[in-house]
């Protein structure tokens, strides 16, 4: 515990809390009087402040706790979302023409026997609006799930930031 003593102002009789480490310095009273602080020995002869009269502020207030809780919630909530976005898988590719022009160009580059088989399987049976492959269906399902979890993760982070901001604007608490 830090030793504190009461130094009276000779002009207005107000008392000021001082510590022995302030010996030899100057203190300005509210009345404007400049008080020269005495030596350490003389300070220790002044009236000490007992531990019961010292009103120390607690180190942690509700305000600081609210800010810390909000920041922790924001960080913990955002972490999975950032991970899921960073590790998003690549979409599977498929060389299927989207138009008649693309199909004609692709068929023109193939040997005759292969182009007839391609035309029969891809264009004649399926049409240009083809169905998705199993990899594409799996990717779409994974993307939908990850998108939902990312939204939930970032929503939790937003709530945490709002709690932290609420704590920052919280007024002083009385005890």
Model description:
The protein is mostly helical. It has two domains: 5-48, Rubrerythrin, domain 2; 62-168, no CATH class. It has five helices and five strands. It has helices at 40-44, 62-86, 100-108, 112-125, 134-168, and strands spanning 5-8, 15-18, 26-28, 34-36, 47-48. The strands form two sheets. Strands 2-1-5 form a three-stranded antiparallel beta sheet, with no helix packed on it. Strand 1 (5-8) and strand 2 (15-18) form a beta hairpin. The protein is rod-shaped, with a radius of gyration of 38 Å. The two termini are 22 Å apart.
Major sheet: size, sense and barrel closure? Answer: 3 strands, antiparallel
Q: Helical stretch count?
A: 5
Q: How big a fraction of the residues is strand? A: 5-15%
Structural Rg: 38 Å
Low-confidence stretches: none
Strand elements, count: 5
Topology:
Layout: E1 5-8, E2 15-18, E3 26-28, E4 34-36, H1 40-44, E5 47-48, H2 62-86, H3 100-108, H4 112-125, H5 134-168
Helix pairs in contact: 2-5, 3-4
């Amino acid at each position: 515990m830090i030793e504190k003593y009461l130094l009276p102002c000779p002009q207005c009789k107000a008392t000021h809390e001082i510590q022995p480490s302030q010996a030899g310095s100057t203190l300005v009273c509210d009345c404007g009087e400049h008080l020269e602080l005495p030596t350490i020995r003389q300070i220790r002869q002044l009236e000490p402040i007992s531990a019961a009269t010292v009103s120390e502020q607690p180190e942690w207030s509700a305000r600081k706790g609210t800010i810390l809780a909000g920041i922790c919630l924001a960080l913990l909530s955002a972490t999975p979302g950032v991970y899921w976005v960073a590790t998003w898988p690549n979409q599977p590719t498929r060389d299927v023409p989207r138009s008649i022009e693309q199909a004609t160009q692709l068929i023109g580059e193939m040997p005759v026997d292969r182009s007839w088989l391609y035309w029969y399987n891809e264009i004649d049976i399926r049409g240009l609006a083809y169905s998705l492959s199993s990899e594409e269906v799996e990717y779409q399902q994974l993307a939908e799930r990850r998108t939902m979890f990312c939204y939930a993760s970032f929503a939790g982070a937003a709530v945490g930031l709002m709690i932290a901001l609420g704590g920052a604007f919280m007024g002083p608490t009385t005890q």
